[in-house]
Design brief:
Blueprint: H1 2-21, E1 35-39, E2 42-46, H2 65-75, H3 91-104, H4 114-117, E3 121-123, E4 131-133
Antiparallel strand pairs: 1-2, 3-4
């Protein structure tokens, strides 16, 4: 009897340890913005399938979304940051985006995602300097 009780307690202890050490389920990461499209009359960064629910971060290289972000940071009359349009999300792009995030009341992570998208001003389609926010 004593041995079976010890066995049951040991098994319960191991089962509890297995339950508490299991890796937590993580939310799926957003896809990377690869291009941009006209959305509400603005040039907004998107995936190839057209979703604007995407992200950009340091190290990203593209011929669509990153250069448009850089043009937005450089040419938008609200921002006018010193950024080279080269398609490489490097340290100058990170610094410029952090500046914009601070200006718009977004945590300054230096990465572009939904929180930044919802506050950032975007280039008006067909304009070289005019910008406005989504849903304005």
């Amino acid at each position: 009897m004593k041995r079976s009780l010890i066995g049951v307690l040991a098994a319960a202890s191991l089962a509890g340890a297995a339950l508490t050490t299991a890796a937590p389920t993580q939310a799926a990461a957003l896809p990377t913005c690869t291009t941009y499209r006209e959305y509400q009359g603005l040039y907004v960064f998107s995936t190839a399938s057209g979703s604007i629910n995407c992200q950009l971060a340091a190290g990203t290289r593209s011929s669509g979304a990153v250069p448009q972000l850089q043009r937005n940071l450089r040419d938008c009359d609200r921002y006018q940051r010193d950024v080279t349009v080269d398609g490489i999300f490097g340290q100058r792009t990170v610094a410029a985006l952090r500046w914009v995030q601070n200006k718009e009341g977004v945590p300054p992570t230096g990465a572009y995602g939904p929180a930044t998208r919802d506050k950032m001003y975007f280039m008006v389609a067909g304009s070289r300097t005019e910008c406005r926010p989504l849903n304005a």
